[in-house]
Amino acid sequence: MTATLSSPSLGPGLDAIFQDVLRRSPAEPEFHQAVREVLETIGPVVSQHPEYVRQKLLERIAEPERQIIFRVPWADDNGEVHVNRGYRVEYNSALGPYKGGLRFHPSVSLGIVKFLGFEQVFKNALTGMPIGGAKGGADFDPKGRSDSEIMRFCQSYMTELHRHVGEYTDVPAGDIGVGERELGYLFGQYKRITNRYESGVLTGKGLTWGGARVRREATGYGTVFFVQEMLAQRDQSLDGKTVVVSGAGNVAIHAIEKAQALGARAIACSDSSGYVHDPDGIDVALLKQIKDVERAPIATYAARRRPGARFVPGRPVWELPCEVALPCATQNELTEADAAALVAGGVLAVAEGANMPCTPEAVRVLRAAGVPFAPGKAANAGGVATSALEMQQNASRDSWTFEHTEARLAEIMGEIHRLCADTAARYGAPGDYVLGANMAGFIRVADAMLALGLV
Ligand SMILES: NC(=O)C1=CN([C@@H]2O[C@H](COP(=O)(O)OP(=O)(O)OC[C@H]3O[C@@H](n4cnc5c(N)ncnc54)[C@H](O)[C@@H]3O)[C@@H](O)[C@H]2O)C=CC1
Ligand SMILES: O=C(O)CCC(=O)C(=O)O
Question: Tens of pLDDT along 168-221?
């Protein structure tokens, strides 16, 4: 459902703020959805803090500090010229330099980048690290493009972006369609244009050129660490649990890897063509080979795997009963009907590895059924938190071990879980991670903005 002026009232004051958002940013439904979800939960905090109202903190947080839109011209392998649109929305820098990923996907628009940037502000605040929030990308479709086409696109994108980023200004990373390969081409172009080996300008880098161990794994691993904490609240663990994951990219692969390492059986994952069901448990090495190396569709997995694995085209992976569901693909991919199917199948916990993958209706179904639900801004914060650890290593010219970094990630996810759970309980909604995450993130950003004056 798209939030509109006729959506149920948020209460006095908040309705006016939301109407302003709709008026200023029309035709950006995902952005409206993200803002509305925060406004729906933030009332009790605002009513206890008249200074937030006086200083118009909600109005200021809803409005990005800066929105950059630029042309990205590039030539394909046949010499044909293409023009894409690039974006960087520098959302909020109260807590530190702007920080957040870049997404290359044909669906990217200003509204998508703004919703992602808005979420990033709260998520980054929850990590407790000194990072503001941003997001960027382009409506470029990397599917089927050669390495050299990807390189030329990245070089053209960075030729403009370099004016806006820097270790102390704005530090991009990867997201959908942007991984180590793309970050390498982006970093190479930045270094060439600026003549500076400024490692801290990007995170998610390769290990031989300034990257940090565990960044590649961090979002998926972190989501699973968060689920461990959710289950522990109910004296349960992942051991022996059946897990279903959507997506088959960076977040999905590493969520599956960690869930299996902790004794769960991850039986399915997907891409935009359909899902694979492998009742014996997904073979992660094969999945990495197909998705990371060959960049082939998920059907290839079933074709290569033992006969028990099957590919189901065009169906949601959520039709498979499971105890833990991890949506790790893209926004609004888990609908009301999918949530009802998960509840009917006996799901015990749902955690968003992706950004806003569950529709508001799906979240309502899960909450009404009493299923613990972790929003992305808490559950997938391990990626950006480890990016902040990468910045820390770059600044100190250090390189930590895998074990040390993973232990730090697990500790941070535990702290985020505690913060969300404690905040929800303090405001009379124990177990409500959505409310806890929104309130705790908001308070951190709002207090920093108050301290910095009217900026
Ligand atoms: N990479 C990171 O560190 C972080 C990523 N995220 C979020 O996680 C999600 C996934 O990102 P990555 O794994 O990095 O991207 P990726 O590009 O590595 O993988 C995305 C995967 O989702 C699949 N997909 C896309 N649309 C789909 C659909 N409609 N149904 C099923 N599968 C679909 C793609 O085929 C691909 O396998 C995104 O929402 C992203 O914003 C969140 C935090 C950090
Ligand atoms: O690591 C980062 O800076 C960004 C990760 C990201 O884009 C996200 O958390 O959605």
Answer: 999 999 999 999 999 999 999 999 999 999 999 999 999 999 999 999 999 999
The response to whether residue 271 sits with its C-beta less than 6 Å from ligand 1 reads: yes
pLDDT in tens, 80-93: 999 999 999 999 99
For the cut 60, the answer to whether the pLDDT of residue 1 exceeds it is no
Q: Is 92 among the annotated ligand-binding positions?
A: no
Domain boundaries, the chain: 1-62+431-455, 66-197, 217-374
**Looking at residue 3, what is its pLDDT?**
58
Indicate whether residue 3 lines ligand 1 (CB < 6 A). no
- The CATH fold assigned to 217-374 is Rossmann fold (3.40.50)
Query: How many Å apart are CA 135 and CA 99, to the nearest integer?
Result: 7
- The verdict on whether 135 is a catalytic residue reads yes
Ligand 1 centroid to Cα of residue 15, in Å, is: 32
pLDDT, tens digit (0-9, with 9 covering 90-100), for 214-224: 999 999 999 99
Dump pLDDT digits (tens) for 73-131. 999 999 999 999 999 999 999 999 999 999 999 999 999 999 999 999 999 999 999 99
Question: Who lines ligand 2 at CB under 6 A?
Answer: 99-101, 120, 123, 173, 175, 203, 355, 383-384, 387
- Relative to beta strand 265-271, strand 274-277 is antiparallel
Give the list of residues 6+ apart from residue 46 with CB closer than 8 angstroms, or none.
13, 14, 52, 53, 58
Which ligand approaches the C-alpha of residue 386 most closely? Answer: 2
CATH number assigned to the domain with residue range 1-62+431-455, chosen from the 4 options 1.10.10.200, 3.30.830.10, 3.40.50.1000, 1.10.285.10? 1.10.285.10
Q: Are the folds of 66-197 and 217-374 the same? A: yes
Task: Give, for ligand 1, the residue of 104, 122, 214, 219 to mutate: max count of ligand atoms closer than 8 Å to Cβ.
Answer: 219
Ligand nearest to the CA of 275: 1
CATH code of the domain occupying 66-197: 3.40.50.10860
Instruction: List strands edge to edge, sheet with 242-246.
Output: 310-313, 274-277, 265-271, 242-246, 324-327, 349-351, 373-374
